[in-house]
């Protein structure tokens, strides 16, 4: 027997059923004594003269079963203090207030029933309030300086920061600054966060030219706290390019003012997700976007990309942006504003290329899948990446290449080029570290496992030599570049760890051990300068590095005592193993970590 499908109820029947059910509920509630005594009284209908307004509505009347709940729309609007009936172009917030007032005016049910009906109507009509769209006055987080000082700070930012990290287009930013501060409109959250970030970075840039940088840094943190307060209330800000710029600028601020990598990592992750949402990671074909805006969109994304790759290598965490999910041209050569250039060299574009190599180093050598590759594939990847990095170095002018003495450059180009050299040497060290791991695991480099087209890694490019080159960069570090101290602190600590490992492995090597111990002490003096700022993270790192130096000295002394006393080889080996166990116990370091960093100690 086949059942015949039932015909769906007509709309009128469905509405009638709902009305009957609501009437029964009202009868039960009234019988329970919850309702007031006068709830069933009929409200006399108020007559209004007919209006010529095209949006005027007749009085809303319910059927006879609900005659007690009739309402005049004009009286409701008058009581709600609304200017007139809501037309199709009225703001959603006014519509929301209007309908809520109608619900409560048109009946005299208890508040708990009104709340239920109000929620249903709001969800059905899309009138629910969005807390992120509230008309906040973001200026309450910022005490702006006088206009003259404000313009001077913005000018310093573009001259000393934006010229090497082109996060903003100067003409566009200045135009928005005058537009937002002169008009009575309320600027967006993203723009206010950007303004706070620009002022904070401007104070950091000014700190290089004063003998009392602490006062300027305090002012910088005040503006950054304003930006953080805005971002805390509206995490993604306005989901536009200005929001991405603000978040990337905040990430830059934290990288040059603290050693903690958590805050810049979170800021960058949010910025890149917003950038992906608005299409910054793809080439724009929109004819409505000007060439200047397209170029600025590219610059903003590449800056976020550079920071993302640097943080990925420093922390051993995967980057946020995947190279397989982006299609974006490199920044334009010879732009009209010449931003990102160091002389005739497009240093900003060179940093973008280096960031792409850094991403491949992590993906091909240190990602989880990379540890599952065969040794033939690993050695091939090491050779290819080493060659890519060398080609990048040779593409730079000779006076700007890593391995050469840094030229005498004005600020901020001196510190910017110094940071680029730090990134290069650290990236090269990671490539050679992976080679050393494979060599140690396989018991020597198997020549038959390496393709003939790949040349061996040069002897001068081993991990220890890279660490020595990093320490040598500290000798030319500008003493007033406080921001560069924090940015390069990790690389210096990593170099110290590598030198410590070399001394532990060969404590009796009289040709290199004393010089390497001196390099360790150079890093310690550099860390001591930063610890004067009473930073908890820096002090913790300094304590670890100081312990490493003390252990290295103890190992060297024991090695000399063993040689003078003609200790048998077996006893010497046992002493070395015991010392190695003490070192691991003192550092509380688990050797199973594939991506060793000073932060793991």
UniProtKB/TrEMBL annotation:
Organism field: Macrophomina phaseolina (strain MS6) (Charcoal rot fungus)
PANTHER family in alphabetical order: ABC-TRANSPORTER-REGULATING TRANSCRIPTION FACTOR, TRANSCRIPTION FACTOR PDR1
Cross-referenced SMART domains: Fungal_trans
Domain Xylanolytic transcriptional activator regulatory residue range list: 264-337
Pfam family, one: Fungal_trans
Claim: Translocase is one of the keywords in the record: no
An individual GO BP term: DNA-templated transcription
Keywords: Nucleus
A GO term for molecular function: DNA-binding transcription factor activity
Nucleus listed as a keyword: yes
Top-level taxonomic group: Eukaryota
Name of the featured protein: Transcription factor fungi
